[in-house]
C-alpha cells in the first residue's frame, strides 16, 4: 500500500517513514535523564521492550498494551543521511502526548510541548558519519494532570461516563526528509470573496536571500494549467494575492468552487529559483470557497448551507486516537458521506492531516475542536492557547475546515457562568482564533453558557421529537429556548444581546444507545432492536429537518466508543441498521 504523504499540503517526493518497531522503556522512577538513556553507540543503555509506532503504549496494536506510566522512552536507528551536498535533514514528529525531548546520536536537538500537533527539528548538526543514526525520544504525559489539554482521555484508571482510555507518547507518524538549505518551509492558502481569488502566505528558510531569488507558482485543474507566474522573494515571508482568471468562473462558477457536492481542488506546484537554478520544489493544493454567517444562517460560497454534521470521536478500539492505517482514515470519511452527512464535528481531538486531506478530497465539512483541559489555571490557559495557535498554523489551509470550536460545554472554564475571568478566557481565545484566522467563524463555547463567538451551539439530548419541534421549530421558538430553557441543565446564554442574529446549530443531539451491554454508560437512553432504533432516529432527525429556526445539526455520534454505545456504526465501523435507510433519514429525503 502506498502511504499518503503525512503532510499533504506541503509535500515533496522523497521522505522517509520511521514508523514501525522502536526500542521502548518505561521510566517510572524518572531516572532516564540522569542515567543517560539518551546516549547512543557503545554507551547506550539497553531498552527492555519493543513498541510499534505510531500506536500509543496503552493500545493493543502497540504491542505493549499497558497503561498508567507517565514517562516513556523510545529509540530507533535509521538511515537519515542527507540526499545531496548542502541538504538539511528534518525530523518530523506528527504528534506526541504531551512533552517531548529528542536526541540524535546523543545530541539534544529540541523539545516540544503540546500533545496533538506535531513539530519538526533540523537534526543535521547531530548526524554522524555513515548512514545509521540513532533517534531517542523521551515523552512525558502525566495521566492525572487536569491542567493539561487532554480532551476525552480519562484521568481515572478505568474509562468512566464519556471519557476514554489514554493515548500517550508517540501516537502519530514519525518521518524525515532531506531538504535544501534554502527552501519553502510553510504555506497558507486563504480564498477570497471574488471568484478565483486566493492569497498565498509562504515562508522561506535558509541562506541569506539574494535579489535573484524567485518563487514560481503553477495552478492546475485536472492537469490543465490555470495560471503560472514568478515572483521576487525579498524576505523570509512572501504574501502573494492571485486571481485565477478563467471563463469557467463566469459560465460555470460552481465547477471551480469547493463544497460537499463538488469538492474541486486545484493542484499547485511551487518552485523556488535562484536565477535559472531550481532550488526547491514542493506540491500543495487549494480549495476555493468562502465561509460566513449572516442573518441567522451559515453561508458557504455566499449561499445558505444547512449543516448536517456528525460527532467524530476518531477513536479506534485497538489503537485509540491513532488510526489503524491509511485505509481506515479514508474509510472513515467515506462512511460520513455514505450516511448522508455533509460534515463532522471533530470532537476533543485534533484531526490527522491525512484525515483532513480526505475531507478536502471527498467534500466533508469540518468543525475543528481542540482538546480541553479540566481546570482553570494560568498554566492550563497557557497550554490551551499554545495548542490552538499550533492547530491554526498547521490546518488553516484545509478548505474542509469551516469553523473552529474554542471550548466545549464549559470544559476548562467550569464556572464560566459566574466567573468574569473565565468569561474573559472564552472571549480571549475566541478573539485569538478570529485574529489568527478571520476567514472562518468561531464557536466560542459549544453547548451552553454562550459568551462570545459567531455561532451559537446548543446541546440537547431529549429523545422526543415533539419536544425538539417545540424548542427549535421556528426562529421565535429558538429565541424563547435560548432565553428560558436549560436542556443540559445549564443556562444557554450569558450574553443574549451579543448573540442576536447569529446562526443557531443543534450541535449535539440524539445519541441513541443500541447494541448495548453490561457496563455501557446509559446516559443517552437505549433501544433494543433495529426497528426501534430507526423509528427514534427518524423522529429526532425529522424534527430538526422541519425546523425553520436552526442553521443545522450535529448528530451524536458516528461510532460506538468504548462504553458510549450510541453510534450509528459500532466500534468496528459496521452500520447498526441498513445504511441506505440511515442515509435517507439523515439527508432528509423522507421529508
UniProtKB/TrEMBL annotation:
Keyword terms, alphabetized: Hydrolase
Keyword Phosphoprotein: no
SUPFAM superfamilies: (Trans)glycosidases (SSF51445), beta-Galactosidase/glucuronidase domain (SSF49303), Galactose-binding domain-like (SSF49785)
Xref: InterPro entries: Beta-gal/glucu_dom_sf, Beta-mannosidase-like_N2, Galactose-bd-like_sf, GH, GH2_Domain-Containing, Glyco_hydro_2_cat
Gene3D superfamilies: Galactose-binding domain-like, Glycosidases
Signal peptide: none
Ranges where the Glycoside hydrolase family 2 catalytic domain occurs: 291-443
Beta-mannosidase-like galactose-binding domain boundaries: 72-166
Stretches assigned to coiled coil: none
PANTHER family assigned: BETA-GALACTOSIDASE, HYDROLASE
Name used for this protein in its record: Beta-galactosidase
Amino acid at each position: 500500500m502506498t502511504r499518503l504523504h503525512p503532510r499533504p499540503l506541503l509535500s515533496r517526493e522523497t521522505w522517509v517513514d520511521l514508523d514501525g518497531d522502536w526500542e521502548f522503556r518505561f521510566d517510572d522512577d524518572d531516572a532516564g535523564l540522569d542515567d543517560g538513556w539518551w546516549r547512543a553507540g557503545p554507551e547506550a543503555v539497553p531498552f527492555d521492550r519493543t513498541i510499534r509506532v505510531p500506536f500509543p503504549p496503552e493500545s493493543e496494536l502497540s504491542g505493549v498494551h499497558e497503561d498508567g506510566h507517565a514517562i516513556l522512552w523510545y529509540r530507533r536507528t535509521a538511515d537519515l543521511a542527507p540526499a545531496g551536498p548542502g541538504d538539511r535533514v528534518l525530523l518530523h514528529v506528527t504528534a506526541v502526548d504531551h512533552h517531548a525531548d529528542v536526541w540524535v546520536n546523543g545530541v539534544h536537538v529540541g523539545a516540544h510541548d503540546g500533545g496533538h500537533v506535531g513539530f519538526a527539528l533540523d537534526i543535521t548538526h547531530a548526524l554522524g558519519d555513515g548512514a545509521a543514526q540513532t533517534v531517542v525520544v523521551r515523552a512525558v504525559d502525566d495521566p492525572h494532570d487536569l491542567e493539561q489539554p487532554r480532551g476525552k482521555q480519562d484521568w481515572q484508571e478505568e474509562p468512566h461516563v464519556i471519557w476514554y482510555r489514554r493515548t500517550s507518547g508517540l501516537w502519530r507518524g514519525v518521518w524525515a526528509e532531506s531538504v535544501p538549505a534554502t527552501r519553502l518551509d510553510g504555506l497558507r492558502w486563504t480564498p477570497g470573496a471574488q471568484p478565483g481569488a486566493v492569497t498565498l502566505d509562504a515562508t522561506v528558510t535558509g541562506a541569506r536571500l539574494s535579489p535573484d531569488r524567485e518563487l514560481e507558482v503553477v495552478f492546475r485543474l485536472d492537469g490543465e494549467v490555470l495560471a503560472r507566474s514568478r515572483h521576487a522573494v525579498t524576505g523570509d515571508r512572501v504574501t502573494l494575492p492571485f486571481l485565477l482568471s478563467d471563463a469557467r468562473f463566469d459560465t460555470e462558477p460552481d465547477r471551480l468552487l469547493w463544497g460537499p457536492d463538488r469538492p474541486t481542488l486545484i493542484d499547485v506546484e511551487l518552485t523556488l529559483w535562484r536565477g535559472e537554478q531550481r532550488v526547491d520544489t514542493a506540491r500543495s493544493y487549494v480549495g476555493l470557497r468562502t465561509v460566513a454567517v449572516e442573518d441567522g444562517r451559515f453561508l458557504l460560497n455566499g449561499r445558505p448551507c444547512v449543516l448536517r454534521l456528525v460527532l467524530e470521536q476518531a477513536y479506534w478500539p485497538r489503537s485509540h486516537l491513532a488510526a489503524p492505517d491509511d485505509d481506515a482514515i479514508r474509510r472513515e470519511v467515506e462512511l460520513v458521506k455514505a450516511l448522508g452527512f455533509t460534515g463532522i464535528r471533530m470532537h476533543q481531538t485534533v484531526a490527522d492531516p491525512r484525515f483532513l486531506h480526505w475531507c478536502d478530497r471527498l467534500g466533508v465539512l469540518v468543525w475543528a475542536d481542540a482538546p480541553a483541559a479540566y481546570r482553570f489555571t494560568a498554566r492550563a490557559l497557557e497550554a490551551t492557547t499554545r495548542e490552538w495557535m499550533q492547530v491554526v498554523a498547521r490546518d488553516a489551509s484545509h478548505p474542509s475546515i469551516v469553523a473552529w470550536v474554542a471550548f466545549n460545554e464549559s470544559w476548562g472554564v467550569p464556572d464560566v457562568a459566574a466567573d468574569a475571568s473565565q468569561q474573559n478566557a472564552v472571549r480571549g481565545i475566541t478573539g485569538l482564533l478570529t485574529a489568527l484566522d478571520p476567514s472562518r467563524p468561531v464557536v466560542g463555547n459549544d453547548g451552553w453558557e454562550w459568551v462570545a463567538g459567531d455561532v451559537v451551539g446548543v446541546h440537547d439530548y431529549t429523545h422526543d421529537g415533539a419536544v425538539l419541534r417545540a424548542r427549535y421549530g421556528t426562529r421565535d421558538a429558538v429565541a424563547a429556548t435560548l432565553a428560558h430553557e436549560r436542556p443540559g441543565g445549564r443556562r444557554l446564554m450569558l450574553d443574549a444581546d451579543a448573540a442576536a442574529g447569529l446562526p443557531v446549530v443543534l450541535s449535539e443531539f440524539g445519541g441513541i444507545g443500541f447494541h448495548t451491554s453490561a457496563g455501557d454508560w446509559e446516559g443517552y437512553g437505549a433501544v433494543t432492536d433495529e426497528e426501534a432504533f430507526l423509528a427514534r432516529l427518524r423522529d429526532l432527525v425529522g424534527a430538526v429537518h422541519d425546523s425553520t429556526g436552526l442553521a443545522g445539526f450535529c448528530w451524536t455520534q458516528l461510532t460506538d466508543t468504548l462504553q458510549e454505545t450510541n453510534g450509528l456504526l459500532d466500534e468496528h465501523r459496521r452500520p447498526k441498521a441498513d445504511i441506505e435507510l440511515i442515509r435517507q433519514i439523515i439527508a432528509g429525503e423522507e421529508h
